[in-house]
Structures are given as structure tokens and as C-alpha cells.
From TrEMBL:
UniProt cross-references to SUPFAM superfamilies, sorted A to Z: DinB/YfiT-like putative metalloenzymes
Domain DinB-like: 14-150
Gene3D superfamilies attached to this UniProt entry: dinb family like domain
Organism lineage: Bacteria, Bacillati, Bacillota, Bacilli, Bacillales
Protein name, UniProt field: DinB superfamily protein
InterPro entries: DinB-like, DinB/YfiT-like
Amino acid sequence: MNKEMEQLLLAFEEWTLFAKTLSRLEEKTWNSSLEKGKWTIKSIVSHMMLWDRYFYKEAIEKIALNQQITLKHLDFDEFNRKAVEYGNRTEPFEIVDKAITYRHKIMNDIRGLSEEQLYQRYVDPENKDNVFYIPQYLKDFIWHDQHHMEPLKQYLAGEGLL
């Protein structure tokens, strides 16, 4: 695996290290919002875990198994609403466990791919405009991770919990 891909995977792993620190939070903190009217910590972590699960099952795992990807354009609002619902009915330890598990599955499968597989552009046969490219996926989700982790870190530090 080349240096660029290894660096992307190291940055992509940061989420799992942060998620582990969240596992020690009390239930009250899990159910608190960073700002009034915003998602709870539990909802944010559920949202991130479910995106990882989606991309693992519909793209990364399929690529590792030499199968056709099955990614679809999703209604983000609906996906996120379901993530909040999932978080509301699931224990924090289970959410963190799944967040770490799916992120590690993604990383392990990517590490097992050949250079050719890593840099191939995967096209959905039902929608030729839907192209999945692993380096871009990693870059997008590293950004997404930071987008959620930075406010969480600030909030938890402000509460004396980090």
C-alpha cells in the first residue's frame, strides 16, 4: 500500500480512537446536545456509525469480495432521521462498539485490496453517474469525521469531560 493511502487510513482511524473515549461518558452526557435544538451526542455517533455501515455493506465489502457495488443516492434527511431514531433506542456502548467495528472493517478490507482495486473507479450499473472511488471516499469521510469530532471535542472539553 502506498504512502498516500496509508496516511488517509491513519486519518480515517482517528474516529475510532475518539469513539473509544466516548464510551466512558455517562448517559446524561450521551443525551445532551452541543447546542439547544441540535442533535445529541448519541445521535451524532449513531449518524456516523450508520454511514460507515452503509458504505461498508454497499461498497467496501462488495469490492473486497469482487462483487458489484450497490450504493444508491440516498435521501440524506431521511437517512439522518433514521440515525437519530436508532440512537434513541440503542444503548451508547452498543453504538460505540458498532462504530468501531464498522470503521475497522472498512480499514481492514481496504488494506487487503490491491493497488488496482484501490484506485479503480467503481460504477453502479443502474446509474452510471454514481461512481465510487476509494481515495475520494476516504477524503470525504475524513472531512465528515472532523466536521463532527471538532465540535464534540470542544463541547466535552468545555464540560471538563475530555
